[in-house]
Amino acid sequence: MVTGKWELNKANVVANEWVSRDVKRITLLSPGIAATASPGQFVNVKVNSTYAPLLRRPFSLNRIDKDKGTISLLYKLVGEGTELMAELETGDLLDVLGPLGNTFSIEEDCGDSIFVAGGIGVAPFYPLARLLLQLGQKVTCIMGARCREDINELDELRALGVNVLCATEDGSEGMRGLVTDVLRAHLRSTKCSMAYACGPNPMLAAVKAVCAEHQTPLQLSLESHMACGIGVCLGCTCKKGPEEGYVHVCKEGPIFWAEEVAL
Ligand SMILES: Cc1cc2nc3c(=O)[nH]c(=O)nc-3n(C[C@H](O)[C@H](O)[C@H](O)COP(=O)(O)OP(=O)(O)OC[C@H]3O[C@@H](n4cnc5c(N)ncnc54)[C@H](O)[C@@H]3O)c2cc1C
């Protein structure tokens, strides 16, 4: 679903805590964004008040608390911007633009849903899980990572009522192997009405192939490199599916039906 209004505000940092060895969750007081945000959307953040780094950094909404007026971002420290964000303390201000992008498509009378999350790709799934569970749907989440230390949100998703299955490359959590091995086995035994995936593009391409084998509709949350976040700079293009041309991840996405994009 495409949504409309976004706002730019200085959000107070409520908390900025370590979740695992290189992942933190930052919670921001931002009643305007929290009020209108939906699962799948993201914010574009200016990580400090100087021009270094120049560009904003995009992050999916990992928690949306409309009652408290807060949003949270689950972020992996990978470079300059995320390292600066990691230094923020309670009471600091962060310049946030959002909510941006479209939302996951929800079918209210859907049966079982499945999420496939690669590493930090788990970030957008908590609010989606809450929504689907409130609608009475069953949700399974397959989480993939190199090892147990790189798995995030396992306990939180289980506490919500999600059936979580893990695949790690070293076998330290769940099955040794790839998320697609677990997905293939799951789809053989369980009919899923909808699949949702977020993670690195090679994983998304493999998930797309498995879902196509099982005729399972699939929505992808794409995390392309991005600059403006509002469709002006054209920095986040992704090739369209069978057709010629490109889509803009920030404006037409970040959520796409699998057949809409070539990975
Ligand atoms: C819609 C959207 C939602 C996102 N949600 C999340 C989220 O919830 N949590 C999270 O941790 N990250 C998320 N990302 C990715 C996040 O925006 C980048 O990790 C972040 O901008 C890196 O900033 P940096 O300054 O720390 O790293 P940089 O110094 O900019 O880059 C460090 C390294 O990371 C690589 N990199 C940077 N951005 C990306 C990217 N988008 N994809 C792949 N590699 C990249 C660079 O090539 C470089 O090798 C999202 C991206 C998009 C487009």
Jot down its keywords.
263 residues; alpha/beta; Elongation Factor Tu (Ef-tu), domain 3; seven-stranded antiparallel beta sheet; 7 helices; binds flavin-adenine dinucleotide
Largest sheet: 7 strands, antiparallel
SSE topology string: EEHEEEEHEEHEHEEHEHEEEHE
The CATH architecture category of the largest domain equals: 3-Layer(aba) Sandwich
Q: Could you tell me how far the N terminus lies from the C terminus, measured between alpha carbons in angstroms?
A: 21 Å
Describe it for me?
- The protein is of the alpha/beta class.
- It folds into 2 domains: 7-100, Translation factors (Elongation Factor Tu (Ef-tu), domain 3); 113-221, Nucleotide-binding domain of ferredoxin-NADP reductase (FNR) module (Rossmann fold).
- The protein is built from 7 helices and 16 strands.
- It has helices at residues 31-36, 80-86, 125-134, 154-160, 179-189, 201-213, 249-252, and strands at 7-20, 23-29, 42-46, 57-60, 63-65, 70-76, 93-100, 113-118, 139-145, 163-168, 175-176, 194-198, 218-221, 237-239, 246-248, 255-257.
- The strands form 3 sheets. It has a 7-stranded antiparallel beta sheet. Strands 11-10-9-8-12-13-16 form a 7-stranded mixed beta sheet, sandwiched between helices. It has a two-stranded antiparallel sheet with strand order 14-15.
- Strand 8, helix 3 and strand 9 (139-145) form a beta-alpha-beta unit.
- The chain is globular, with a radius of gyration of 18 Å.
- The site of flavin-adenine dinucleotide has 22 residues, from strand 4, strand 6 and helix 2.
